[in-house]
Specification:
The chain is of the alpha+beta class. The protein is built from four helices and six strands; from the N terminus they run H-H-E-E-E-E-H-E-E-H. It is 37% helix and 25% strand.
């Protein structure tokens, strides 16, 4: 098991199921993503670049697509969610919609494919 699986398995419910679901969408969207680390966080990686990390914080869950431009690409669909330059904050009770997660992952994959994925 990789870093993501170990991290998710160590979480309590309902965060575990919510985060596992997001990683599932990401894996379906980018089947060749692998588990690893991105900027010190458990993450899925694609073409040796961080694709997505989802982690639990004290008062919320955070999705990190490692790209402010990717967050901006779906900003109009994030009403009701707290966002910052590199994260989208949500809760298990108010999760991100599956289609938004899939679109975020597709946008990040396209960014990496275009060579605009930033640092490793």
């Amino acid at each position: 098991m990789g870093e993501v699986g170990e991290y998710v398995d160590g979480l309590d419910e309902p965060a575990r199921s919510t985060i596992r679901g997001i990683y599932g969408i990401a894996r379906e969207t980018v089947p060749d993503a692998v588990e690893g680390v991105g900027y010190g966080m458990p993450a899925l990686r694609y073409r040796d670049k961080p694709l997505l990390s989802v982690m639990q914080a004290k008062a919320h869950l955070g999705l990190y697509p490692f790209s402010p431009a990717v967050i901006e690409s779906v900003a109009d669909r994030l009403a009701g969610f707290d966002t910052a330059k590199g994260t989208i904050r949500f809760t298990a009770e108010h999760p991100l919609p599956d289609d938004v997660v899939a679109d975020l992952v597709r946008a990040r994959r396209a960014e990496i494919d275009a060579g605009a994925g930033g640092r490793r």
